[in-house]
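input
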Amino acid sequence: MSTSRLARLARLALLTALALIIFVVEMQIPAVIPVPGVKLGLANIITVYALYRYKGGEVFMIVLIRVLLGAVFGGNIMVLPFSMTGALVCLGGMLILRRFIDEKHIWIASIFGAVLHNIGQITAAIAVMKTTAVIAYLPILIFTGCAAGAFTGLTAQFVINKMSRNKAEDKPSD
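output
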Protein backbone atom coordinates (compact mmCIF):
# COMPACT_ATOMS: atom_id res chain seq x y z
CA MET A 1 0.00 0.00 0.00
CA SER A 2 1.40 3.39 -0.99
CA THR A 3 2.12 6.05 1.59
CA SER A 4 -0.64 8.31 0.26
CA ARG A 5 -3.22 5.50 0.40
CA LEU A 6 -2.10 4.62 3.91
CA ALA A 7 -2.37 8.27 4.97
CA ARG A 8 -5.88 8.46 3.47
CA LEU A 9 -6.89 5.27 5.31
CA ALA A 10 -5.51 6.71 8.55
CA ARG A 11 -7.55 9.92 8.05
CA LEU A 12 -10.69 7.84 7.41
CA ALA A 13 -10.03 5.82 10.57
CA LEU A 14 -9.57 9.03 12.56
CA LEU A 15 -12.82 10.45 11.20
CA THR A 16 -14.63 7.22 12.10
CA ALA A 17 -13.20 7.27 15.62
CA LEU A 18 -14.06 10.95 16.03
CA ALA A 19 -17.65 10.36 14.86
CA LEU A 20 -17.99 7.46 17.30
CA ILE A 21 -16.57 9.51 20.19
CA ILE A 22 -18.95 12.38 19.43
CA PHE A 23 -21.85 9.92 19.25
CA VAL A 24 -21.00 8.34 22.63
CA VAL A 25 -20.47 11.74 24.29
CA GLU A 26 -23.78 13.04 22.91
CA MET A 27 -25.54 10.02 24.43
CA GLN A 28 -24.38 11.23 27.86
CA ILE A 29 -25.87 14.71 27.41
CA PRO A 30 -29.43 15.07 28.76
CA ALA A 31 -31.99 15.60 26.01
CA VAL A 32 -32.73 19.24 25.27
CA ILE A 33 -36.18 18.29 24.00
CA PRO A 34 -37.73 15.48 26.07
CA VAL A 35 -39.07 13.61 23.04
CA PRO A 36 -37.83 10.06 22.35
CA GLY A 37 -35.56 9.86 19.33
CA VAL A 38 -34.92 13.60 19.13
CA LYS A 39 -31.27 14.59 19.34
CA LEU A 40 -28.82 16.85 17.56
CA GLY A 41 -26.94 14.04 15.85
CA LEU A 42 -23.59 15.72 16.33
CA ALA A 43 -21.70 12.76 14.85
CA ASN A 44 -23.28 13.73 11.55
CA ILE A 45 -20.97 16.74 11.45
CA ILE A 46 -18.26 14.21 10.60
CA THR A 47 -20.49 12.46 8.06
CA VAL A 48 -21.32 15.71 6.26
CA TYR A 49 -17.68 16.79 6.34
CA ALA A 50 -16.59 13.42 4.92
CA LEU A 51 -19.35 13.55 2.31
CA TYR A 52 -17.71 16.61 0.75
CA ARG A 53 -14.14 15.39 1.17
CA TYR A 54 -14.14 11.65 0.44
CA LYS A 55 -15.54 9.14 -2.01
CA GLY A 56 -19.02 7.72 -1.46
CA GLY A 57 -17.75 4.25 -0.55
CA GLU A 58 -15.39 5.71 2.02
CA VAL A 59 -18.16 7.76 3.62
CA PHE A 60 -20.35 4.64 3.60
CA MET A 61 -17.70 2.77 5.61
CA ILE A 62 -17.43 5.63 8.14
CA VAL A 63 -21.21 5.62 8.62
CA LEU A 64 -21.52 1.83 8.72
CA ILE A 65 -18.79 1.41 11.33
CA ARG A 66 -20.07 4.33 13.44
CA VAL A 67 -23.64 3.03 13.51
CA LEU A 68 -22.60 -0.56 14.29
CA LEU A 69 -20.13 0.39 17.02
CA GLY A 70 -22.47 3.12 18.30
CA ALA A 71 -25.14 0.50 18.95
CA VAL A 72 -22.59 -1.70 20.73
CA PHE A 73 -20.98 1.07 22.81
CA GLY A 74 -24.36 2.66 23.46
CA GLY A 75 -25.51 -0.60 25.00
CA ASN A 76 -28.69 -0.77 22.96
CA ILE A 77 -28.35 -3.14 20.02
CA MET A 78 -32.15 -3.08 19.62
CA VAL A 79 -31.97 0.38 18.01
CA LEU A 80 -29.66 -0.89 15.27
CA PRO A 81 -32.37 -1.48 12.63
CA PHE A 82 -33.71 2.04 13.14
CA SER A 83 -30.29 3.70 13.22
CA MET A 84 -28.92 1.76 10.27
CA THR A 85 -31.97 2.30 8.07
CA GLY A 86 -32.00 6.01 8.87
CA ALA A 87 -28.27 6.35 8.28
CA LEU A 88 -28.29 4.51 4.95
CA VAL A 89 -31.32 6.38 3.58
CA CYS A 90 -29.74 9.64 4.72
CA LEU A 91 -26.37 8.83 3.19
CA GLY A 92 -27.88 7.68 -0.09
CA GLY A 93 -29.86 10.89 -0.40
CA MET A 94 -26.92 13.10 0.51
CA LEU A 95 -24.64 11.33 -1.96
CA ILE A 96 -27.12 12.24 -4.69
CA LEU A 97 -27.52 15.80 -3.40
CA ARG A 98 -23.75 16.27 -3.24
CA ARG A 99 -23.75 16.37 -7.05
CA PHE A 100 -26.10 19.37 -7.03
CA ILE A 101 -25.26 21.23 -3.82
CA ASP A 102 -21.86 22.89 -3.65
CA GLU A 103 -19.69 23.42 -0.58
CA LYS A 104 -21.20 26.85 0.05
CA HIS A 105 -24.58 25.25 0.76
CA ILE A 106 -23.66 22.08 2.62
CA TRP A 107 -26.23 22.89 5.28
CA ILE A 108 -29.00 22.34 2.73
CA ALA A 109 -27.78 18.80 2.02
CA SER A 110 -27.53 18.23 5.77
CA ILE A 111 -31.15 19.29 6.34
CA PHE A 112 -32.33 16.95 3.59
CA GLY A 113 -30.16 14.21 5.09
CA ALA A 114 -31.70 14.71 8.53
CA VAL A 115 -35.22 14.50 7.10
CA LEU A 116 -34.29 11.40 5.10
CA HIS A 117 -32.79 9.87 8.25
CA ASN A 118 -36.10 10.40 10.05
CA ILE A 119 -38.08 8.94 7.16
CA GLY A 120 -35.76 5.91 7.17
CA GLN A 121 -36.23 5.45 10.91
CA ILE A 122 -40.01 5.66 10.65
CA THR A 123 -39.93 3.17 7.76
CA ALA A 124 -37.91 0.77 9.93
CA ALA A 125 -40.34 1.32 12.81
CA ILE A 126 -43.29 0.46 10.56
CA ALA A 127 -41.54 -2.74 9.48
CA VAL A 128 -40.48 -3.77 13.00
CA MET A 129 -43.65 -2.78 14.84
CA LYS A 130 -46.00 -3.85 12.05
CA THR A 131 -48.08 -0.68 12.36
CA THR A 132 -48.36 2.58 10.49
CA ALA A 133 -49.35 4.44 13.66
CA VAL A 134 -45.74 5.59 14.06
CA ILE A 135 -46.19 7.86 11.02
CA ALA A 136 -47.94 10.28 13.40
CA TYR A 137 -44.52 10.84 14.99
CA LEU A 138 -42.96 11.93 11.68
CA PRO A 139 -43.91 15.66 11.79
CA ILE A 140 -42.13 16.07 15.14
CA LEU A 141 -39.07 14.25 13.83
CA ILE A 142 -39.01 16.26 10.60
CA PHE A 143 -39.31 19.58 12.43
CA THR A 144 -36.54 18.77 14.89
CA GLY A 145 -34.54 17.06 12.14
CA CYS A 146 -34.54 20.25 10.06
CA ALA A 147 -33.15 22.23 12.99
CA ALA A 148 -30.55 19.58 13.83
CA GLY A 149 -29.62 19.15 10.16
CA ALA A 150 -29.11 22.89 9.77
CA PHE A 151 -26.90 23.00 12.86
CA THR A 152 -24.75 20.01 11.89
CA GLY A 153 -24.56 21.18 8.27
CA LEU A 154 -23.49 24.71 9.20
CA THR A 155 -20.91 23.28 11.59
CA ALA A 156 -19.54 20.94 8.90
CA GLN A 157 -19.49 23.85 6.45
CA PHE A 158 -17.53 25.94 8.97
CA VAL A 159 -15.01 23.11 9.43
CA ILE A 160 -14.59 22.67 5.68
CA ASN A 161 -14.11 26.41 5.18
CA LYS A 162 -11.46 26.52 7.90
CA MET A 163 -9.65 23.45 6.56
CA SER A 164 -9.89 24.40 2.88
CA ARG A 165 -6.54 26.14 3.14
CA ASN A 166 -4.90 22.77 3.82
CA LYS A 167 -3.51 21.65 0.46
CA ALA A 168 -3.29 17.99 1.54
CA GLU A 169 -7.02 17.76 2.13
CA ASP A 170 -8.83 15.10 0.12
CA LYS A 171 -11.67 15.80 -2.30
CA PRO A 172 -14.25 13.28 -3.51
CA SER A 173 -13.69 11.96 -7.00
CA ASP A 174 -16.93 10.09 -7.55
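quick obs: Residues 164 and 170 are 10 Å apart (CA to CA).
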